[in-house]
Each structure stands twice: as C-alpha cells, then as structure tokens.
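Q: Here's a chain of 193 amino acids. Please give me its 3D structure as tokens.
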Amino acid sequence: MGNREDLLAGAKRCLIEKGYAATTARDVATAAGTSLAAIGYHFRTTRALLDEALVGAMAEWGEELDRALARDAGPDADPEQRFELAWERIIESFARLRPLWAVQFELIARMDRSPELRAAFAAANRRARLGLAEVFHRLDPDTDEATALRLGAFHQALLGGVAAQWLVDPDAAPSAKELTRALRTVARELGPG
C-alpha cells in the first residue's frame, strides 16, 4: 500500500479503537507507519482523513450488512419470518461492529461542524433506506422509490433505536423475536388500513 492507503487503514483502526474525538494525528501516523507530514500531504487535515476513513468504514459495514441480509428466509417465508430473520442478523452485527456503531453515534453530535460528513451520512442514509425496503418488503426501489424511501425510513429509525439501546445495555436491548411481537401488537392496535 502507499502512504495514502496506509493512512486510511491506520485511521480506521484508530476510529475503532479510540473513537473520533480521541484520535490524534500522531495516533494515525503511528498506526499507519507513516510520518505526520504524510497526513498533510495526502489529506490536508487530520479531520479530513478521519472523515474519509469513517465514510469508508461505513461503506464496508453497509456491504457486510447487505451480504448478511441477502441470505433470504426462503421463497415460502412470510413477511413476519423475513422480518425476524433480518433482525437476528442485524443484531448479530451489533456485536461484531460495536466500535463502528459507537463512532457513528459519536459523530451525529458533531455533524453540524462538518458539511462534508453530513453529506456523506445523508447519502448513506438514502442508500440504506432503499436497501432496507428491498430486504424487508422485497420492494424494488426502481419500481416505487417513494414507497421504498418511506418504508426504509421506518426500518432505519428502528435500526438506529435498537442500535442505541444495544450500545447502552446489550442485555436489555430487544431481541428479534421481541421486536417482531411488538410490531405485531402495534399493527393490531392500528387496525386495518
């Protein structure tokens, strides 16, 4: 790898190990095996390097989650079975990717100070919504994008809420089965229509 790639890999490791706010230029240079000057040469600022590393890490996480969710429950599975299986896989990802989830929540509070990071998160949110609608509803986003975005936003809101609960207290966070039961109760209370 060249210095640029080494710096991105080192920054990803630091983000996972230390978080965004606690990572210094020296930490990244040490993790990358490069000089401090390499950060300025390739990225101008440590923040720009960390932002790009985080966007890359989020893309990798999204691809991993896509692969996990692509394993369908089967053609005979009903929507409830698909929902519960997808949530089992999502919750499994929280354990594997806890540091990345923590960094994302850390950055939500800092988003106003970084328009570039906000734009990257917004683009990732849109892609996630379309993907979630496809996974949970077998809805082709190209066929009905507005519905896909609406349904995906619902699942994304649920995902963020469960992730926050899992980060705070994994033992008390809802399981896939509990989420399925709760959604069934909410749907019954809302009634038909």
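Q: Can you summarize the key feature?
A: The mean pLDDT is 88.
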